[in-house]
Amino acid sequence: MDLDVFVSAHRAEWDRLDALLRRRRRLNGAEADELVALYQRATTHLSLVRSSAPDPQLTGRLSQLVARARSAVTGTRRSSWRDVTRFLTQGFPAAVYRSRHWWVPTALVSTAVAVLLGWWIGAHPEVQSTIAAPAELRSLTRPGGEYETYYSSHPAASFAAQVWTNNAQAAAMCLVLGVFLGIPVLWILFQNMLNLGVGIGLMSSAGRLDTFLGLILPHGLLELTAVFVAAGTGLRLGWTLIDPGPRSRRTALAEEGRAALGMAIGLALVLFVSGAIEGFVTPSGLPTWARIGIGIAAELAFLTYVYVLGGRAARSGATGDVEESERSATLPTAA
Q1: Disulfide-capable partner of 118 in 146, 151, 197, 333 (CB 3.0 to 4.6 Å)?
Q2: What is the model's pTM?
């Protein structure tokens, strides 16, 4: 292709498109139709230049012109409160509901692992001696010890913010690192269950398991559920690389990855609630039954939210992915 001849033949069209894009007043119907036609031609011209005569200067000019025209033709979409409402009532709960076959087994197996670790540590003093010296263990488990004072060691607001940040980071890591076949997710999950098992084992060996559960359950039910959801979704994302199903591996990973990133935002909100409970309810002077009751109520509210609202949204076609109009085309489309 003779580049000079090509530019001479089409420069007037490009200049006209540029002039229409610079108009400050609203275009009339004829001008809008002309803008769309010129945009389609410029897109074709850009494709021809890139494939036949990739001149950097001309490619840059046409790329900029096409980008401006695309923005004018399609418009700029702005997020609104309607998007937030749709995400909270459809997208997020539907994504959690759809991944229930992964996070529910993850929760059951992980809880069993934590209980077994707690039994093993509590029943074997020689294992406890590898964790800390006897004096340190007594400092941890005695009445008024570190296991109890931990929740009131800082002002409630700052403590809740710190807990929320740490838990949200852990959940996000589970979701993001799931792409590595889920292996890092298993390690993060095991570390969490090991910490829980150590607490169960040490406090049960000191005869104070009821106190430990009274401190853990108010916030731990919702907090651990969020972690299990993140871990299960991360494992599902890793499995998508192995078995993408009827979709191409690229398409499947893109769809599940976008849903997982959306879940990271939703789970951050869930962990905000659990962090507030841990900061304000767990160390409060409320009776143990009242504190545990608040934790159970929060857990039941979340499960109802997922299974009722999320189930309804999932059955209506919601997946947690972005709107279909905002996804990249998976097949060639005509201009």
Answers
A1: 197
A2: 0.72
